[in-house]
Amino acid sequence: MAVAGVDAATATAQAWATACFASNISKAYVYSDYVGVRVRKINSLPETKSTVVVPAGLSWNNVGVAFSPWSPDGLLVQSDTADAYRKVSFASGTGTFSFGATPLAYTHGRPQLPSPPLMLERGALRGRVLVGELDSVRQLQLESNGSITDVSKTPVSGTGSGQIIGAIGVSP
Questions:
Q1: How many structural domains does the chain have?
Q2: Helix, strand, or coil here: 18?
Q3: What's the confidence (pLDDT) of residue 131?
Q4: Tell me, what's the pLDDT at 136?
Q5: Residue 92 sits in which domain range?
Q6: For strand 62-67 and strand 48-53, is the pairing parallel, antiparallel, or unpaired?
Q7: CB hemisphere CA count around 131 (13 angstroms)
Q8: Distance between CA atoms of 105 and 147, rounded to whole angstroms?
Q9: Average pLDDT, the chain
Q10: d(CA 151, CA 128)
Q11: Per residue in 115-142, is it b (16+ CB within 10 Å) or e — as a string?
């Protein structure tokens, strides 16, 4: 994955991605302005590994990526000053990823300090993505046609700091 003549930041990101991909487990990692991507073989598409530089203006605090179980398209979650969900698209002809220049259309309002996404990969809710936000849990659906739907936003009970989401998890 290393390319001769690249700047130090790119070389660091490439070394980081190579180390991540050595585990052969995860599908995406986020490092500064870089997203390292591994998409497992899906139907007739080959496994893909690449390091993607998020375009300028979209590189604010990328916290995670979730990929559709039906295609190599996915969701990029940005937090802090960006607070956005963006579509990640894969061009099989060139083997490259691109990021939506504009955030998704939100049915349930703009995200507030989203955390890394958790995707359900099996069962009736396959492709459902859960994201903890400041005081709620957002559900997004990675659809089989490649689109992303803002399904719901469930507020948590409590007041003050007792209402802040720290982390969420999913167990079978």
A1: 1
A2: helix
A3: 95
A4: 93
A5: 8-163
A6: unpaired
A7: 33
A8: 11
A9: 74
A10: 9
A11: bbbbbbeeeeeebbbbbbbebbbbbbbb
Q: Where do we find the tokens 């060139």?
A: 94
The residue behind tokens 């167990």 is 171
Report yes or no on 170 lying in a domain: no
| Predicted local distance difference test score (pLDDT) of residue 88 | 81
Domain assignment of residue 1, yes or no:
no
Whole-number Å distance between alpha carbons of 41 and 104? 26
Cβ atoms of residues 72 and 53 within 8 Å: no
Residue partners of 81: CB distance under 8 A and separation at least 6: 60, 61
Written as one string, the DSSP assignment of 82-138 is S-EEEEEEEETTTTEEEE-SSPPPPSS---SS----EE--SSTTTTEEEEE-SSEEE
* Site of tokens 């487990």: 25
Evaluate whether residue 168 is within a structural domain.
no
